[in-house]
C-alpha cells in the first residue's frame, strides 16, 4: 500500500434521524483500526448534504427514511456534488423498489437495521479498499502525466524534426499536435536562427561556447515570443528552429536578432518564412528557410533597424520614410539609398510587400471585412488598398479571398 495512504483517514458521515442508531453505528466500529474517521453526523437529509459537502466526506452511511430530504433525494444531490463519494444504505425499509432506486444511484451496499457490526465492518473494509485502489490509480496516472509533461520539450523536438523531415501523414501530424498540446494547425511562421561561426574575440567558436550561446539565444527567443503559441528546438545542423502559431509574431521574431547583437555581442543570422497553411507543405518551407539563412547576406545595423521599424509600424497609415529616418537619426536620402542597396528594393516597394503580405494572411485566416483589413495594414481607404493589392497580386482582395476559400474547400473534398 502507498505509504501516504496508510496514514490517511477516510472521512465518514452517518445520516439517520434516530440518535440511538447513529450512536450504535459509531460505537460498533473500530474506526481508527480501519483507518476511518467519523467526520460528521446528521439527523435529516438536508443537514447531511450540507455536512457532506463541507467536510468533503468519502463514505456516507445513509438511512432512506429521513425527514426534510429523504435518502433517495439526498443521494441524488450527493452524486451531483461529490461524485466519488461511496454510499452505503442502512435502513429498515427492505422494499425491493427502494433497493432498485439505490442501485441506480450507484450505492455500494444495502444493510438492514439493526446493522450487524461484523457485516458493517466487512462492508466498510470493502469500500475503503475501493477508495484506496482508485486513489492509487489516480496517483499513478498523475505521476505518469507529470513525467509526460516534463518530457514535452524533448517529445516536441523529436516530433517537429520528424515533421520537417517529411514522411508523416496529415493524420499522424494532427494526432501528435493534439497529444503534445500544440495548436492543431500548420504554424503561421517558421523561423530559423543560425549562430555565427566566430565571435569578435575568437576566430572560431569553440563547441562549449557555441552551446552556451545557443542556450542564451533560446532563452532570448522564448522570452520575446512568450505571448505566442510556439515550439523552439535545434535541428541536426545546429540551427535554432521556431514554429510560431500567430500572425502577429513577425515583428517580435526579428527583435531576437537585435537583442542577440546587443546582449551577446554576436551577429546571429535570422530568417522567417511564411508557412503554406498545409501541414504537409511545412518540410518544403523548412528546406527553403535553411537555404536562405545559410546564404543570408550581411545587413548593416542601420538597415536592420529600418527593417525592424517597418515591421512594427507598417500598420500606421501615416508611416513615411521621413518619419522613420528621423526616428533612426539619419537622413531620408541616405536611408533610402541603403535600403535599395542592401535589400534590393525601394522603401515604398518593401513597405508595400509587408502590407500586402499581411493582408493576404488576414484574408486567408480571418473573417475581417476588406475595409477592416485595409485599416489594419496601413491604408487610409479601402479603394487605395484594393488598388495596391491588385497591382501586387493580380487579384482584388475579394477575388483572392474567394480563391483561397475555394482552394481550402477543394482540399477538404
TrEMBL record:
<dbReference type="Pfam" id="PF12833">
    <property type="entry name" value="HTH_18"/>
</dbReference>
<dbReference type="InterPro" id="IPR051552">
    <property type="entry name" value="HptR"/>
</dbReference>
<dbReference type="InterPro" id="IPR011006">
    <property type="entry name" value="CheY-like_superfamily"/>
</dbReference>
<keyword id="KW-0597">Phosphoprotein</keyword>
<feature type="modified residue" description="4-aspartylphosphate">
    <location>
        <position position="63"/>
    </location>
</feature>
<keyword id="KW-0238">DNA-binding</keyword>
<feature type="domain" description="HTH araC/xylS-type">
    <location>
        <begin position="304"/>
        <end position="403"/>
    </location>
</feature>
<protein>
    <submittedName>
        <fullName>Response regulator</fullName>
    </submittedName>
</protein>
<keyword id="KW-0805">Transcription regulation</keyword>
<dbReference type="Pfam" id="PF00072">
    <property type="entry name" value="Response_reg"/>
</dbReference>
<keyword id="KW-0804">Transcription</keyword>
<keyword id="KW-0902">Two-component regulatory system</keyword>
<dbReference type="InterPro" id="IPR018060">
    <property type="entry name" value="HTH_AraC"/>
</dbReference>
<feature type="domain" description="Response regulatory">
    <location>
        <begin position="11"/>
        <end position="128"/>
    </location>
</feature>
<keyword id="KW-0963">Cytoplasm</keyword>
<dbReference type="InterPro" id="IPR018062">
    <property type="entry name" value="HTH_AraC-typ_CS"/>
</dbReference>
<dbReference type="InterPro" id="IPR001789">
    <property type="entry name" value="Sig_transdc_resp-reg_receiver"/>
</dbReference>
<dbReference type="InterPro" id="IPR009057">
    <property type="entry name" value="Homeodomain-like_sf"/>
</dbReference>
<dbReference type="InterPro" id="IPR020449">
    <property type="entry name" value="Tscrpt_reg_AraC-type_HTH"/>
</dbReference>
Amino acid at each position: 500500500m502507498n505509504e501516504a495512504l496508510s496514514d490517511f483517514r477516510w472521512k465518514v458521515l452517518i445520516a439517520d434521524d434516530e440518535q440511538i442508531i447513529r450512536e450504535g453505528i459509531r460505537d460498533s466500529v473500530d474506526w481508527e483500526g480501519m483507518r476511518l474517521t467519523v467526520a460528521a453526523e446528521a439527523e435529516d437529509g438536508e443537514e447531511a448534504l450540507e455536512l457532506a459537502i463541507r467536510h468533503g466526506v468519502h463514505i456516507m452511511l445513509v438511512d432512506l427514511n429521513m425527514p426534510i430530504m429523504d435518502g433517495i433525494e439526498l443521494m441524488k444531490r450527493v452524486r451531483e456534488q461529490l461524485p466519488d463519494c461511496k454510499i452505503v444504505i442502512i435502513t429498515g425499509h427492505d422494499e425491493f423498489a427502494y433497493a432498485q432506486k439505490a442501485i441506480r444511484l450507484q450505492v455500494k451496499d444495502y444493510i438492514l437495521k439493526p446493522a450487524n457490526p461484523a457485516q458493517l465492518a466487512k462492508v466498510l473494509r470493502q469500500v475503503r479498499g475501493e477508495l484506496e485502489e482508485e486513489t492509487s490509480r489516480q496517483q499513478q496516472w498523475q505521476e505518469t502525466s507529470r513525467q509526460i509533461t516534463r518530457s514535452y520539450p524533448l517529445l516536441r523536438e523529436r516530433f517537429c524534426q520528424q515533421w520537417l523531415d517529411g514522411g508523416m501523414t496529415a493524420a499522424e501530424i494532427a494526432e501528435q499536435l493534439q497529444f503534445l498540446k500544440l495548436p492543431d494547425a500548420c504554424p503561421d511562421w517558421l523561423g530559423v536562427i543560425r549562430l555565427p561561426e566566430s565571435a569578435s574575440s575568437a576566430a572560431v567558436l569553440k563547441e562549449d561556447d557555441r552551446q552556451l550561446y545557443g542556450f542564451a539565444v533560446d532563452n532570448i527567443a522564448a522570452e520575446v515570443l512568450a505571448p505566442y503559441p510556439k515550439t523552439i528546438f535545434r535541428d541536426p545542423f545546429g540551427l535554432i528552429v521556431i514554429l510560431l502559431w500567430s500572425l502577429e509574431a513577425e515583428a517580435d521574431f526579428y527583435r531576437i536578432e537585435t537583442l542577440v547583437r546587443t546582449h551577446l555581442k554576436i551577429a546571429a543570422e535570422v530568417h522567417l518564412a511564411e508557412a503554406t497553411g498545409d501541414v504537409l507543405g511545412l518540410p518544403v518551407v523548412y528546406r527553403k528557410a535553411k537555404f536562405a539563412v545559410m546564404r543570408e547576406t550581411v545587413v548593416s545595423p542601420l538597415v536592420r533597424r529600418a527593417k525592424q521599424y517597418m515591421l512594427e509600424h507598417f500598420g500606421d497609415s501615416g508611416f513615411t520614410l521621413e518619419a522613420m529616418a528621423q526616428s533612426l537619426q539619419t537622413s531620408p536620402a541616405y536611408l533610402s539609398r541603403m535600403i535599395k542597396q542592401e535589400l534590393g528594393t525601394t522603401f515604398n516597394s518593401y513597405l508595400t510587400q509587408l502590407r500586402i503580405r499581411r493582408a493576404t494572411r488576414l484574408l486567408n485566416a480571418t473573417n475581417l471585412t476588406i475595409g477592416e483589413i485595409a485599416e489594419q495594414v496601413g491604408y487610409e481607404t479601402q479603394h487605395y488598398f484594393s488598388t495596391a493589392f491588385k497591382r501586387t497580386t493580380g487579384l482584388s482582395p475579394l477575388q483572392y479571398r474567394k480563391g483561397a476559400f475555394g482552394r481550402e474547400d477543394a482540399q477538404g473534398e
